[in-house]
Task: structure prediction
Amino acid sequence: MESRDQLACGHGVRAAYLRVRAYPFTAALGEFVDRYDRVYVIEQNRDAQMLGLMKLELEPARVAKLRSVRHYNGLPIDARSITDAVVAQEAGR
Result:
């Protein structure tokens, strides 16, 4: 939530979120991906396991929308790390 506020107030980027709570995934994941041009998968995992599972389960058109934001330096993920990674990827699209 804090990162969403930083993106909106500091960078003019509006964002929504979906907390994935189950695997196998529910239909809600595909419906969420369909609503947006880009979906950032935020995870605290070096190997991007959640992104990998999504790529295995979703159709190619949905997979093409996925972007990775990984945090794995041994510290808990903070909002600024997420915000900075999303802003950098948005600038380079």
About this structure: The first strand starts at residue 39 and ends at 43. The helical segments are 2-11, 27-34, 49-57, 60-63, 79-91.
